[in-house]
Amino acid sequence: MRLIMLGAPGAGKGTQAKILADTYKIPHISTGDIFRANIKGGTELGKKAKSYMDAGALVPDELVCELVADRIAQEDCRDGYILDGFPRTIPQAEALDQAAEALGQKLDYAVDIDVPDESIINRMSGRRACVGCGATYHIKFNAPKKADICDTCGAELILREDDKPETVQKRLSVYHEQTQPLIDYYTKKQMLVSVDGTQSMSDVTTAILNALKED
Ligand code: ADP
Ligand code: ADP
Ligand code: ZN
């Protein structure tokens, strides 16, 4: 199974991608996580990406496309993968099509998790990210067992700099301008599956699994 997760920032892509990756036993590839790991590690890529991310803008396509093309060519991606946060622009989608074709891979579905902007703003202020392992929590909807501590690795949980309301607004407008056109792109390719992302996390998972099964 080769899946693309679409949806606004905070729609629940990462949450669902993780569950789907466990279900299908395939890698979860999050470009946001890859950039954050590079920033933490002080790499050249991290240095280049940081200012864009902090401003709520997209990292330029040329810094993302090759990275993903290399990642999906790796051995563990042979039986499938879930792309979370990529593609985010039409040129990225075209680059992905080319890379997949060159590898003889067929992309199966683009799963759009639909959540209106009003709900996003509320949701993001409650998101907490682990500084150790990158796990994601929500203070109301998916609270850690101990406040501000990661259940998995015991490290501290923080509010991501780019999850502050001003930056979330900016990211939402970037999403509408640059990423939403992908819904049309994948509809035309008859790859789009759309689910209501305002349901509970487990209901969203059920809706996605049912939609993938039906086909
Ligand atoms: P979210 O989970 O809220 O959708 P991500 O963790 O996927 O956010 O991404 C965080 C930031 O990393 C984005 O706002 C953007 O700056 C950068 N980024 C991640 N993926 C991409 C991509 N495919 N193209 C450009 N920028 C990206
Ligand atoms: P994305 O990867 O699309 O940016 P996340 O999966 O990180 O989104 O989810 C954003 C925030 O909302 C997280 O704090 C997460 O725990 C929470 N969340 C995810 N799905 C739901 C849901 N269906 N209902 C309520 N909160 C959710
Ligand atoms: Zn952790």
Describe this structure in words.
- There is one protein chain.
- With 215 residues, the protein is of the alpha/beta class.
- It is built from 9 helices and 8 strands.
- It has a 5-stranded parallel beta sheet with strand order 2-3-1-4-8, with helices on both faces. Strands 6-5-7 form a 3-stranded antiparallel beta sheet.
- Helix 1 crosses helix 9, helix 2 crosses helix 3 and helix 6 (117-125) crosses helix 7 (165-179).
- The mean pLDDT is 96.
- One adenosine-5'-diphosphate (ADP) binds at residues 7, 9-15, 123, 126-127, 136-138, 141-142, 199-201, 204.
Main pleated sheet: 5 strands, parallel
Following the backbone from N to C, one meets helices and strands in this order, namely: EHEHHHEHEHEEEHHEH
Report the helical percentage.
40-55%
Distance between the termini: 13 Å
Which consecutive residue ranges, at least 5 long each, have pLDDT under 50?
Answer: none
Shape descriptor: globular
The number of helical segments is: 9
Return the average pLDDT rounded to an integer. 96
Record the strand order, biggest sheet: 2-3-1-4-8
Tags for this entry?
binds adenosine-5'-diphosphate, five-stranded parallel β-sheet, 8 strands, alpha/beta, 48% helix, binds zinc ion
